[in-house]
Amino acid sequence: MGGGxxxxxxxxTEGRGANAVYTWDEVQKHSHxxxxxxxxxxxxxNVSNWVNRxxxxxxxxxxxxxxxxxxxxxxxxxxxxxxxxxxxxxxxGELAPSExxxxxxxxxxxxxxxxxxxxxxxxxGLFRTSPLFFMMHLxxxxxxxxxxxxxxxxxxxxxITTILCILLLAxxxxxxxxxxxxxxxxxxxxxxxxxxxxxxxxIGHLKxxxxxxxNHRHFQHHAKPNVVxxxxxxxxxxxxxLGNVLPVEYGIKKxxxxxxxxxxxxxxxxxxxLLIPVYFNMHILQTMIMQRDWVDFAxxxxxxxxxxxxxxxxxxxxxxxxxxxxxxxxxxxWFVWVTQMNHIPMDIDYDIHxxxxxxxxxxxxxxxxxxxxxxxxxxxxxQIEHHLFPTMPRHNYIRAAPRVQELCKKYGVQYQVKGLWExxxxxxxxxxxxxxxxxxxxLHK
Length: 445
Known about the structure:
This protein is 58% helix and 6% strand. It has 18 helices and eight strands. The chain has helices spanning 24-28, 58-62, 70-76, 80-87, 108-123, 131-155, 159-184, 192-206, 211-223, 246-252, 263-270, 275-290, 294-340, 356-363, 371-377, 383-388, 397-410, 420-444, and strands at 21-22, 31-32, 35-40, 43-46, 67-68, 91-95, 366-367, 417-418. The longest helix is centred in the last third of the chain and has 47 residues, at 294-340. It is globular. 41% of the residues are buried. One of its GO terms (biological process) is unsaturated fatty acid biosynthetic process.
Protein backbone atom coordinates (compact mmCIF):
# COMPACT_ATOMS: atom_id res chain seq x y z
CA MET A 1 0.00 0.00 0.00
CA GLY A 2 2.53 2.61 1.06
CA GLY A 3 2.04 6.00 2.69
CA GLY A 4 -1.03 8.16 2.78
CA UNK A 5 -2.98 10.79 4.62
CA UNK A 6 -6.21 10.86 6.56
CA UNK A 7 -9.18 9.99 4.41
CA UNK A 8 -12.48 11.79 4.12
CA UNK A 9 -14.86 9.28 5.58
CA UNK A 10 -18.40 8.92 4.28
CA UNK A 11 -21.57 9.22 6.34
CA UNK A 12 -21.57 5.56 7.37
CA THR A 13 -18.18 5.92 9.16
CA GLU A 14 -18.62 9.42 10.58
CA GLY A 15 -18.23 9.39 14.34
CA ARG A 16 -17.35 5.71 14.54
CA GLY A 17 -13.55 6.18 14.59
CA ALA A 18 -10.78 3.70 14.07
CA ASN A 19 -12.22 1.38 16.76
CA ALA A 20 -15.44 0.83 14.83
CA VAL A 21 -16.50 -2.65 13.80
CA TYR A 22 -18.04 -3.65 10.51
CA THR A 23 -19.68 -6.61 8.88
CA TRP A 24 -18.62 -7.97 5.51
CA ASP A 25 -21.88 -6.63 4.08
CA GLU A 26 -20.88 -3.11 5.11
CA VAL A 27 -17.36 -3.46 3.75
CA GLN A 28 -18.56 -4.82 0.41
CA LYS A 29 -20.65 -1.70 -0.18
CA HIS A 30 -17.42 0.29 -0.53
CA SER A 31 -16.24 -1.21 -3.79
CA HIS A 32 -16.70 1.64 -6.25
CA UNK A 33 -14.32 4.20 -7.64
CA UNK A 34 -14.05 7.06 -5.16
CA UNK A 35 -15.33 4.87 -2.33
CA UNK A 36 -13.01 1.93 -1.74
CA UNK A 37 -12.30 -0.06 1.40
CA UNK A 38 -10.09 -3.10 1.81
CA UNK A 39 -9.59 -5.55 4.66
CA UNK A 40 -6.11 -6.67 5.71
CA UNK A 41 -5.78 -9.07 8.64
CA UNK A 42 -9.28 -8.14 9.79
CA UNK A 43 -8.44 -4.41 9.85
CA UNK A 44 -10.62 -2.20 7.63
CA UNK A 45 -8.88 0.54 5.62
CA ASN A 46 -10.42 3.35 3.62
CA VAL A 47 -8.14 3.69 0.58
CA SER A 48 -10.47 5.90 -1.45
CA ASN A 49 -8.07 8.84 -1.66
CA TRP A 50 -4.84 6.88 -1.35
CA VAL A 51 -5.32 4.79 -4.50
CA ASN A 52 -4.05 7.56 -6.77
CA ARG A 53 -0.80 7.72 -4.81
CA UNK A 54 -0.20 3.98 -4.58
CA UNK A 55 3.25 3.14 -6.04
CA UNK A 56 1.81 0.06 -7.73
CA UNK A 57 -0.99 2.04 -9.38
CA UNK A 58 -4.56 2.77 -8.34
CA UNK A 59 -6.13 -0.13 -10.20
CA UNK A 60 -4.34 -2.90 -8.31
CA UNK A 61 -5.92 -1.73 -5.02
CA UNK A 62 -9.23 -1.05 -6.72
CA UNK A 63 -9.39 -4.68 -7.82
CA UNK A 64 -9.69 -5.64 -4.14
CA UNK A 65 -12.13 -2.91 -3.09
CA UNK A 66 -14.75 -4.31 -0.74
CA UNK A 67 -12.74 -7.51 -0.28
CA UNK A 68 -10.19 -9.18 1.95
CA UNK A 69 -6.80 -8.19 0.49
CA UNK A 70 -4.62 -9.89 3.10
CA UNK A 71 -3.10 -12.50 0.81
CA UNK A 72 -2.46 -10.03 -2.00
CA UNK A 73 -0.92 -7.54 0.45
CA UNK A 74 1.38 -10.22 1.84
CA UNK A 75 2.39 -11.40 -1.62
CA UNK A 76 3.32 -7.96 -2.97
CA UNK A 77 5.06 -6.32 0.02
CA UNK A 78 8.34 -7.86 1.20
CA UNK A 79 8.91 -5.16 3.85
CA UNK A 80 5.52 -5.17 5.56
CA UNK A 81 6.79 -3.52 8.74
CA UNK A 82 7.74 -0.43 6.75
CA UNK A 83 4.47 -0.33 4.81
CA UNK A 84 2.29 -0.69 7.89
CA UNK A 85 3.56 2.65 9.21
CA UNK A 86 1.78 4.37 6.34
CA UNK A 87 -1.40 2.35 6.70
CA UNK A 88 -2.35 3.77 10.11
CA UNK A 89 -3.99 6.97 8.77
CA UNK A 90 -6.16 4.83 6.51
CA UNK A 91 -7.58 2.68 9.31
CA UNK A 92 -11.34 3.07 9.91
CA GLY A 93 -12.01 0.02 12.05
CA GLU A 94 -12.02 -3.76 11.99
CA LEU A 95 -14.29 -6.68 11.30
CA ALA A 96 -16.83 -7.52 13.96
CA PRO A 97 -15.81 -10.51 16.14
CA SER A 98 -18.70 -12.51 14.73
CA GLU A 99 -17.45 -12.08 11.14
CA UNK A 100 -15.16 -14.68 9.54
CA UNK A 101 -11.66 -13.59 8.51
CA UNK A 102 -12.27 -14.69 4.93
CA UNK A 103 -14.92 -13.17 2.69
CA UNK A 104 -17.00 -14.80 -0.03
CA UNK A 105 -16.99 -18.21 1.70
CA UNK A 106 -13.29 -18.88 1.07
CA UNK A 107 -11.80 -22.06 2.55
CA UNK A 108 -10.29 -20.87 5.84
CA UNK A 109 -8.26 -24.07 6.30
CA UNK A 110 -6.68 -23.71 2.85
CA UNK A 111 -5.84 -20.06 3.50
CA UNK A 112 -4.24 -20.95 6.84
CA UNK A 113 -2.21 -23.81 5.36
CA UNK A 114 -0.97 -21.62 2.53
CA UNK A 115 0.09 -18.92 4.99
CA UNK A 116 1.90 -21.57 7.05
CA UNK A 117 3.69 -22.77 3.93
CA UNK A 118 4.79 -19.25 3.12
CA UNK A 119 6.15 -18.82 6.64
CA UNK A 120 8.09 -22.09 6.31
CA UNK A 121 9.61 -20.92 3.03
CA UNK A 122 10.59 -17.65 4.68
CA UNK A 123 12.19 -19.46 7.63
CA UNK A 124 14.12 -21.72 5.24
CA GLY A 125 15.54 -18.74 3.35
CA LEU A 126 13.62 -19.20 0.11
CA PHE A 127 12.98 -15.45 -0.02
CA ARG A 128 16.72 -14.71 0.25
CA THR A 129 18.62 -13.91 -2.91
CA SER A 130 21.78 -15.43 -4.32
CA PRO A 131 23.73 -12.32 -5.44
CA LEU A 132 25.93 -14.46 -7.70
CA PHE A 133 22.91 -15.67 -9.70
CA PHE A 134 21.78 -12.18 -10.63
CA MET A 135 25.31 -10.88 -11.17
CA MET A 136 25.93 -13.69 -13.66
CA HIS A 137 22.59 -13.05 -15.33
CA LEU A 138 23.32 -9.36 -15.77
CA UNK A 139 26.86 -10.21 -16.85
CA UNK A 140 25.77 -12.54 -19.64
CA UNK A 141 23.43 -9.84 -21.00
CA UNK A 142 26.26 -7.31 -21.14
CA UNK A 143 28.60 -9.89 -22.70
CA UNK A 144 26.06 -10.61 -25.46
CA UNK A 145 25.85 -6.91 -26.30
CA UNK A 146 29.65 -6.56 -26.18
CA UNK A 147 30.12 -9.51 -28.54
CA UNK A 148 27.76 -7.95 -31.09
CA UNK A 149 29.85 -4.76 -31.12
CA UNK A 150 33.12 -6.71 -31.19
CA UNK A 151 31.95 -8.63 -34.26
CA UNK A 152 31.17 -5.38 -36.06
CA UNK A 153 34.50 -3.82 -35.11
CA UNK A 154 36.42 -6.88 -36.27
CA UNK A 155 34.46 -8.14 -39.29
CA UNK A 156 32.48 -5.11 -40.46
CA UNK A 157 28.75 -4.96 -41.25
CA UNK A 158 28.42 -7.79 -43.75
CA UNK A 159 25.26 -9.87 -43.94
CA ILE A 160 26.50 -12.72 -41.76
CA THR A 161 27.82 -10.35 -39.09
CA THR A 162 24.62 -8.33 -39.18
CA ILE A 163 22.45 -11.43 -38.73
CA LEU A 164 24.63 -12.59 -35.83
CA CYS A 165 24.35 -9.16 -34.21
CA ILE A 166 20.56 -9.20 -34.52
CA LEU A 167 20.40 -12.65 -32.89
CA LEU A 168 22.75 -11.62 -30.09
CA LEU A 169 20.87 -8.38 -29.40
CA ALA A 170 17.47 -10.12 -29.48
CA UNK A 171 18.75 -12.65 -26.95
CA UNK A 172 20.18 -9.89 -24.76
CA UNK A 173 16.89 -7.96 -24.91
CA UNK A 174 14.82 -11.03 -24.01
CA UNK A 175 17.08 -11.92 -21.10
CA UNK A 176 17.07 -8.31 -19.92
CA UNK A 177 13.28 -8.56 -19.98
CA UNK A 178 13.40 -11.44 -17.50
CA UNK A 179 15.91 -9.54 -15.34
CA UNK A 180 13.82 -6.36 -15.15
CA UNK A 181 10.94 -8.62 -14.15
CA UNK A 182 12.96 -9.75 -11.11
CA UNK A 183 13.75 -6.20 -10.03
CA UNK A 184 10.19 -5.08 -10.66
CA UNK A 185 8.93 -7.71 -8.22
CA UNK A 186 11.41 -6.56 -5.54
CA UNK A 187 12.89 -10.05 -5.42
CA UNK A 188 16.62 -9.25 -5.60
CA UNK A 189 17.78 -6.78 -2.94
CA UNK A 190 16.98 -6.66 0.77
CA UNK A 191 16.01 -3.00 0.41
CA UNK A 192 13.25 -2.37 -2.10
CA UNK A 193 14.75 1.03 -2.95
CA UNK A 194 17.70 -0.68 -4.62
CA UNK A 195 15.32 -2.90 -6.59
CA UNK A 196 13.52 0.20 -7.85
CA UNK A 197 16.77 1.82 -9.00
CA UNK A 198 18.01 -1.37 -10.66
CA UNK A 199 14.62 -1.84 -12.29
CA UNK A 200 14.77 1.59 -13.90
CA UNK A 201 18.31 0.91 -15.10
CA UNK A 202 17.52 -2.46 -16.68
CA ILE A 203 14.10 -1.72 -18.19
CA GLY A 204 15.01 1.87 -19.06
CA HIS A 205 18.68 1.94 -20.03
CA LEU A 206 19.08 -1.65 -21.22
CA LYS A 207 15.66 -2.05 -22.86
CA UNK A 208 14.18 1.37 -23.63
CA UNK A 209 10.92 0.97 -21.70
CA UNK A 210 9.25 2.38 -18.57
CA UNK A 211 9.42 0.91 -15.07
CA UNK A 212 6.21 2.60 -13.88
CA UNK A 213 4.32 1.52 -16.99
CA UNK A 214 5.40 -2.07 -16.35
CA ASN A 215 4.57 -1.96 -12.63
CA HIS A 216 1.08 -0.55 -13.03
CA ARG A 217 0.23 -3.06 -15.76
CA HIS A 218 1.94 -6.16 -14.42
CA PHE A 219 0.80 -5.89 -10.80
CA GLN A 220 -2.81 -5.87 -11.97
CA HIS A 221 -2.13 -9.10 -13.80
CA HIS A 222 -0.72 -10.69 -10.65
CA ALA A 223 -3.49 -9.36 -8.42
CA LYS A 224 -6.29 -10.85 -10.53
CA PRO A 225 -4.82 -13.11 -13.25
CA ASN A 226 -7.16 -14.01 -16.11
CA VAL A 227 -10.00 -12.07 -14.46
CA VAL A 228 -12.10 -10.22 -17.01
CA UNK A 229 -12.06 -6.41 -16.59
CA UNK A 230 -9.19 -6.64 -14.07
CA UNK A 231 -6.26 -8.36 -15.79
CA UNK A 232 -4.95 -6.09 -18.60
CA UNK A 233 -3.09 -9.02 -20.17
CA UNK A 234 -6.34 -10.55 -21.37
CA UNK A 235 -7.64 -7.27 -22.77
CA UNK A 236 -6.79 -7.97 -26.40
CA UNK A 237 -8.39 -4.76 -27.73
CA UNK A 238 -11.17 -6.75 -29.42
CA UNK A 239 -8.58 -8.44 -31.64
CA UNK A 240 -8.85 -11.77 -29.83
CA UNK A 241 -11.56 -13.28 -27.64
CA LEU A 242 -10.18 -15.56 -24.93
CA GLY A 243 -11.54 -18.31 -22.71
CA ASN A 244 -15.03 -19.75 -22.68
CA VAL A 245 -17.06 -16.79 -21.39
CA LEU A 246 -16.08 -13.74 -23.46
CA PRO A 247 -16.46 -15.48 -26.84
CA VAL A 248 -20.04 -16.43 -26.03
CA GLU A 249 -20.82 -12.91 -24.78
CA TYR A 250 -19.40 -11.41 -27.96
CA GLY A 251 -21.32 -13.88 -30.07
CA ILE A 252 -24.65 -13.23 -28.36
CA LYS A 253 -24.13 -9.47 -28.78
CA LYS A 254 -23.26 -10.06 -32.46
CA UNK A 255 -19.89 -8.36 -32.04
CA UNK A 256 -17.58 -9.08 -34.95
CA UNK A 257 -14.59 -6.76 -34.99
CA UNK A 258 -12.65 -9.58 -36.66
CA UNK A 259 -13.54 -13.13 -37.77
CA UNK A 260 -12.74 -14.65 -34.39
CA UNK A 261 -13.28 -18.18 -35.65
CA UNK A 262 -9.99 -17.66 -37.52
CA UNK A 263 -8.10 -16.04 -34.64
CA UNK A 264 -5.89 -19.11 -34.19
CA UNK A 265 -4.58 -18.36 -37.68
CA UNK A 266 -4.22 -14.57 -37.70
CA UNK A 267 -2.69 -14.70 -34.21
CA UNK A 268 0.61 -15.66 -35.88
CA UNK A 269 0.57 -12.42 -37.89
CA UNK A 270 -0.68 -9.84 -35.38
CA UNK A 271 0.28 -11.34 -32.01
CA UNK A 272 3.91 -12.42 -31.64
CA UNK A 273 5.32 -10.16 -34.38
CA LEU A 274 3.64 -6.89 -33.35
CA LEU A 275 3.16 -6.83 -29.56
CA ILE A 276 6.52 -5.29 -28.62
CA PRO A 277 7.47 -3.41 -31.83
CA VAL A 278 4.06 -1.75 -32.22
CA TYR A 279 1.66 -1.93 -29.28
CA PHE A 280 4.06 -1.88 -26.33
CA ASN A 281 6.30 0.79 -27.82
CA MET A 282 3.37 3.07 -28.61
CA HIS A 283 1.67 2.48 -25.26
CA ILE A 284 4.88 3.03 -23.26
CA LEU A 285 5.60 6.34 -24.97
CA GLN A 286 2.00 7.50 -24.68
CA THR A 287 1.84 6.59 -20.98
CA MET A 288 5.06 8.40 -20.06
CA ILE A 289 4.01 11.58 -21.86
CA MET A 290 0.42 11.62 -20.61
CA GLN A 291 1.50 10.97 -17.00
CA ARG A 292 4.49 13.31 -17.31
CA ASP A 293 6.78 10.59 -16.10
CA TRP A 294 9.97 12.42 -17.00
CA VAL A 295 12.26 10.21 -14.90
CA ASP A 296 11.28 7.09 -16.84
CA PHE A 297 11.36 9.13 -20.03
CA ALA A 298 15.00 10.09 -19.34
CA UNK A 299 15.93 6.43 -18.81
CA UNK A 300 14.03 5.59 -22.00
CA UNK A 301 16.01 8.20 -23.97
CA UNK A 302 19.29 6.95 -22.49
CA UNK A 303 18.71 3.57 -24.14
CA UNK A 304 18.27 5.09 -27.59
CA UNK A 305 21.23 7.44 -27.10
CA UNK A 306 23.42 4.46 -26.25
CA UNK A 307 22.06 2.27 -29.02
CA UNK A 308 22.41 4.83 -31.81
CA UNK A 309 25.85 5.94 -30.66
CA UNK A 310 27.00 2.32 -30.91
CA UNK A 311 25.36 1.28 -34.19
CA UNK A 312 24.99 4.40 -36.35
CA UNK A 313 28.75 4.30 -37.20
CA UNK A 314 28.23 0.85 -38.74
CA UNK A 315 24.72 1.03 -40.24
CA UNK A 316 23.80 4.71 -40.41
CA UNK A 317 20.65 6.12 -38.78
CA UNK A 318 18.02 4.34 -40.89
CA UNK A 319 20.04 1.15 -40.98
CA UNK A 320 20.21 1.19 -37.17
CA UNK A 321 16.43 1.62 -37.02
CA UNK A 322 16.06 -1.39 -39.34
CA UNK A 323 18.36 -3.46 -37.11
CA UNK A 324 16.42 -2.46 -33.99
CA UNK A 325 13.12 -3.32 -35.68
CA UNK A 326 14.42 -6.81 -36.46
CA UNK A 327 15.60 -7.20 -32.86
CA UNK A 328 12.20 -6.13 -31.49
CA UNK A 329 10.46 -8.47 -33.93
CA UNK A 330 12.41 -11.50 -32.66
CA UNK A 331 12.16 -10.42 -29.03
CA UNK A 332 8.40 -10.04 -29.38
CA UNK A 333 8.01 -13.62 -30.58
CA TRP A 334 10.11 -14.84 -27.68
CA PHE A 335 8.15 -12.78 -25.15
CA VAL A 336 4.68 -13.70 -26.39
CA TRP A 337 5.18 -17.45 -26.59
CA VAL A 338 6.83 -17.61 -23.16
CA THR A 339 4.41 -15.34 -21.29
CA GLN A 340 1.19 -16.60 -22.86
CA MET A 341 1.86 -20.34 -22.65
CA ASN A 342 1.01 -20.26 -18.93
CA HIS A 343 -2.19 -18.19 -19.13
CA ILE A 344 -4.15 -18.17 -22.40
CA PRO A 345 -5.03 -21.89 -22.23
CA MET A 346 -6.20 -21.55 -18.62
CA ASP A 347 -9.57 -20.45 -17.21
CA ILE A 348 -10.56 -16.88 -18.09
CA ASP A 349 -13.65 -15.60 -16.33
CA TYR A 350 -15.14 -12.79 -14.29
CA ASP A 351 -14.04 -12.42 -10.67
CA ILE A 352 -15.40 -15.22 -8.48
CA HIS A 353 -13.44 -14.02 -5.41
CA UNK A 354 -11.39 -17.13 -4.66
CA UNK A 355 -8.57 -17.47 -2.17
CA UNK A 356 -5.07 -16.62 -3.43
CA UNK A 357 -3.94 -20.20 -4.08
CA UNK A 358 -7.07 -21.29 -5.92
CA UNK A 359 -7.23 -18.10 -8.01
CA UNK A 360 -3.60 -18.32 -9.10
CA UNK A 361 -3.75 -22.04 -9.91
CA UNK A 362 -6.91 -21.60 -11.96
CA UNK A 363 -5.10 -19.04 -14.12
CA UNK A 364 -1.58 -20.47 -14.33
CA UNK A 365 0.31 -23.63 -15.20
CA UNK A 366 3.95 -24.71 -15.21
CA UNK A 367 6.23 -25.95 -17.96
CA UNK A 368 8.70 -28.76 -17.36
CA UNK A 369 11.95 -27.85 -15.65
CA UNK A 370 15.26 -28.07 -17.52
CA UNK A 371 18.33 -25.85 -17.76
CA UNK A 372 17.22 -24.61 -21.17
CA UNK A 373 13.59 -24.02 -20.15
CA UNK A 374 14.70 -22.14 -17.04
CA UNK A 375 17.04 -19.89 -19.03
CA UNK A 376 14.79 -19.48 -22.06
CA UNK A 377 11.74 -18.47 -20.01
CA UNK A 378 13.50 -16.58 -17.21
CA UNK A 379 12.14 -19.27 -14.85
CA UNK A 380 8.59 -18.41 -15.89
CA UNK A 381 8.21 -22.11 -16.56
CA UNK A 382 7.61 -22.04 -12.77
CA GLN A 383 4.70 -19.67 -13.31
CA ILE A 384 2.67 -21.19 -10.47
CA GLU A 385 5.34 -20.57 -7.85
CA HIS A 386 6.03 -17.13 -9.28
CA HIS A 387 2.37 -16.13 -9.02
CA LEU A 388 1.99 -17.52 -5.52
CA PHE A 389 5.19 -15.88 -4.27
CA PRO A 390 6.02 -12.97 -6.61
CA THR A 391 8.79 -11.61 -4.35
CA MET A 392 10.60 -14.96 -4.15
CA PRO A 393 13.91 -15.00 -6.09
CA ARG A 394 13.34 -17.19 -9.13
CA HIS A 395 16.30 -19.49 -8.49
CA ASN A 396 14.36 -20.84 -5.47
CA TYR A 397 11.18 -21.80 -7.34
CA ILE A 398 12.49 -25.31 -7.90
CA ARG A 399 12.79 -25.79 -4.14
CA ALA A 400 9.29 -24.48 -3.48
CA ALA A 401 7.48 -26.42 -6.22
CA PRO A 402 7.24 -29.90 -4.60
CA ARG A 403 5.58 -28.57 -1.44
CA VAL A 404 3.23 -26.37 -3.41
CA GLN A 405 2.19 -29.51 -5.29
CA GLU A 406 1.56 -31.30 -1.99
CA LEU A 407 -0.67 -28.48 -0.74
CA CYS A 408 -2.63 -28.43 -4.00
CA LYS A 409 -3.12 -32.19 -3.82
CA LYS A 410 -4.39 -31.92 -0.24
CA TYR A 411 -7.17 -29.52 -1.27
CA GLY A 412 -7.90 -30.90 -4.74
CA VAL A 413 -6.52 -27.87 -6.57
CA GLN A 414 -5.23 -28.79 -10.02
CA TYR A 415 -1.48 -28.25 -10.48
CA GLN A 416 -0.66 -28.49 -14.19
CA VAL A 417 2.79 -29.14 -15.66
CA LYS A 418 3.28 -29.31 -19.44
CA GLY A 419 6.05 -29.82 -21.93
CA LEU A 420 7.28 -26.68 -23.71
CA TRP A 421 5.91 -27.66 -27.12
CA GLU A 422 2.62 -28.80 -25.58
CA UNK A 423 2.26 -25.45 -23.79
CA UNK A 424 2.84 -23.53 -27.02
CA UNK A 425 0.43 -25.75 -28.93
CA UNK A 426 -2.21 -25.20 -26.26
CA UNK A 427 -2.16 -21.47 -27.00
CA UNK A 428 -3.28 -22.17 -30.56
CA UNK A 429 -5.75 -24.86 -29.51
CA UNK A 430 -7.27 -22.51 -26.95
CA UNK A 431 -7.65 -19.71 -29.50
CA UNK A 432 -9.30 -22.13 -31.91
CA UNK A 433 -11.75 -23.37 -29.27
CA UNK A 434 -12.65 -19.82 -28.20
CA UNK A 435 -13.19 -18.83 -31.83
CA UNK A 436 -15.55 -21.76 -32.35
CA UNK A 437 -17.53 -20.80 -29.24
CA UNK A 438 -17.87 -17.27 -30.58
CA UNK A 439 -19.04 -18.46 -34.00
CA UNK A 440 -21.61 -20.83 -32.50
CA UNK A 441 -23.03 -18.08 -30.27
CA UNK A 442 -22.92 -15.55 -33.14
CA LEU A 443 -24.89 -17.80 -35.47
CA HIS A 444 -27.27 -19.58 -33.14
CA LYS A 445 -27.87 -17.57 -29.95
